[in-house]
Amino acid sequence: MALIRLALPVYVELLTAVVAVGLIDLFWVSGLGGPAVAAVTVATTTEHLALGIVLAVGTGTTIVVGRRDGRRPLTPVIRTAWLLWAVVSLAVTVPGVLAREPLAALFTDDATTAALTADFYLVSLAGLPVFYAQTLTDGIFKGRGDTATPMRVALLCNALVIVLDPLFIYTFGLGVQGAAWATVLARAATLALSLTLLVRRTPREGRQGPNRRDAAEILGAGLPLSGDFLARALVGMAMVGVVGGLGVAALAGYGIGMKIMLAGVMAFYALRQASTIQTARSGEAGPALPYGLLTGLVVGVVLALSARWVTGLFTDDPAVAATATDFLRWMPLYLVPFGGLIAVGGAFQATGRGGRLLAATLAGFAVQLSCAYGLEPLMGATGVWVAMAAGAAVALTLVLAPVPPLRLRAWRARRGSGPRTAPGREPRSTRTAAGRRSGR
C-alpha cells in the first residue's frame, strides 16, 4: 500500500501536467480543423522528446536526494542539479528555436500543417526552461518523499490552461500558437509558486556549491531512464512519420488516440516513479510488476469499450474518428506488457540496473519499428498498432529474463550489501543465496 500512496498523487500530477494540458490544447484547436490538430500532435510529441533529455537531471536528483535525505546535506546536490538544469536548458532551447521550421517539416509533407507546427514550436520550445525547471523542482520534492505538492501545483497549472487556452486561441486570435502561449504562461505562474514552496521547506545546510562528484552521481542515476524515455520519444516521432504517410486524417486520428491513451498510461509512470522513490529511500521496491500488468489490463479494456464515444469528444470528422477508434480498440494488446515494463523500471533504476532496462527497451523498439514498416503496406494503420504490441511484449520478456548467477553475484559485489532489490527478484535472490555461501 505504501507504493500506492506514493503513486496516486504522482498519477494525478502526470495526468494534469502532461496529459491534460495536451488534451486541452487538442480540444480547443480542434475547431480550427484537421491541420491544426495534426500540428499540435506533432509539436507535443516533440515536447515529450525534450522532456526525456531533462529527465537525466530530474530523475537523477530524485534518486540522489532520496538516498541522502536525513543522512547527508542536500544543499550541494540541489545546487548542482540547478547548474545542470541551466546547461541542459540552454543546449536544447536555442537550437530548437532556430531549427523549428526544418524540424516541423520532418513530420509532415503538408505545408499548412508544417507551418502551424513551426508557429507552435516558436513559443513552446522557447518556454522549455520553464518546463524543465518545474520538472526539477518536482523531482526535489519527490526525492524527499513529498508527491502531494507536485500534484497540487500540476492541478493549478491545468486549471490555468483551461482558462487561458480559449482566451489566446480565439479571443486574441492567435490560433495554434495561442495554445502554446497559454501553456507556457500557465507553467511560469505555477513554477513561481513551486519555487517559493521549495525555498521555504528546504533547509540550508552549509555553503558548499555545485561539484563534479554530485553531478556525476545525479547523471549516473538519471541517464539510463533518460535514455529509455528518449528512445521512446524518438520511436514515437518515427511512428508519427509512419502514420503521417497515410494522410492528414490518419495522423490527426493517431494524435487523438495517443492523447486519450496517455491518460491511462500515466498510471504506469506513476507506479514507476513511486517505485523509484520507495526503493531509493528505503530499499523496498514493492509489487510494481503485478500492479503494472493489472493496470495495463484495466486501462486497455476501458479504452477499447469507450473508444467510439471518447473519440467523438475530439472530432466530428468521420475519417479522423475512425482511425482514433481503431487505434484504441487494438491497444489492450499493447498496454498489458507496456504497463508491466514501465512499472518495474523504477526499481531497476534506483538499484543501478537501468542499463538492463534500456537494452530491453531498445530491442523492443527494433521489433516495433521493423514490424511497423513491414505491416503498414499490408494492413494500413492497423499494422502499426500490432507492431506496438509486439515491441512491448519483446521488451518485457527481455527485462524479466533470469539473470545468470555469475552475473548476479558480480552485480551484488559491485553494489555492496543493502536491501536494493527489484520487483520479482526476491525469489531468485533467495535461491542463489546458498550458492553464494558455498562459493565463499
From TrEMBL:
Protein's membrane topology: Multi-pass membrane protein
Entry GO MF terms: antiporter activity; xenobiotic transmembrane transporter activity
GO cellular component: plasma membrane
Record InterPro entries: MATE_fam, MATE_MdtK, MdtK-like
Pfam families: MatE (PF01554)
One of the protein's GO biological processes: monoatomic ion transport
UniProt keywords, alphabetically: Antiport, Cell membrane, Ion transport, Membrane, Transmembrane, Transmembrane helix, Transport
DNA damage in keyword set: no
Region (Disordered): 412-440
Task of the protein: Multidrug efflux pump.
Entry similarity comment: Belongs to the multi antimicrobial extrusion (MATE) (TC 2.A.66.1) family.
Descriptive protein name: Probable multidrug resistance protein NorM
Species in which this protein is naturally found: Streptosporangium saharense
